[in-house]
Amino acid sequence: MSDQKRSIFPSVILQMLFFIIVIPLLPLLISQHWEWWEAWAYSFICIFGFAVSRALAARRNPGLLAERARFLQHEDAAPWDKKLAPLVGLGGGLIPLAAGLDALFNWPPTFSLPTKIFALVIILLGYALGTYALIENRFFSGMVRIQSDRGHKVISSGPYRWMRHPGYTGALMTYLATPFFLGSLWAVIPTVALTVVLVIRTRLEDRYLQENLEGYREYAQKVHYRLLPGIW
After folding, report:
1. Nearest Cα to Cα of residue 42 among 129, 126, 165
2. Total number of domains constituting the chain
3. Is 140 helix (H, G, I), strand (E, B) or coil?
4. Does 36 fall in a domain?
5. Which residue in 119, 189, 196, 221 could disulfide with 181, CB within 3.0 to 4.6 Å?
């Protein structure tokens, strides 16, 4: 077994199962509202979306999953991302946690069915965009670093033709829509905090890549927007 494969067993596998399965199921596990169809749909989208996106990415880019599985183990990661990356993971867990507590204690208010359907569409679009970025970019690491060991170079195809960080854009779409789909106003609080962290991380990562990755500065001059085409 290679060092790459050995590095993802067994503790990393357990961590991945926790974030992939337990976190999406938190609204149901906390509230015990087993008839809550939105929570079931949310869990299915998260789990199925993760499985499909990783399967497609592994088929297109062998080695990418091993790179991402070594999350927080890269000694050459940007120092500031060693703090921000865990915050992103924490924020992603706090949103379904808050939604589950909201349902458990019946904190008002909730949202209308049309609002929930619209939010569901945004969640699906966010997953689609994030998956597209993951498949297109074989350097889509879980940590900000220059992957010299993997021949790191600028990716400008696929969704990277329109924005420089489409993976973050897709994640933000999903995060921002989740409280409205799950009918939880309280879940908006960790969502706003997570949005701030992601925007800061995007800005720092973009500057880091311009300073350290060959060809990225020229790419940034052609693709002007980081997250939102026409805005920023």
Report:
1. 126
2. 1
3. coil
4. yes
5. 119
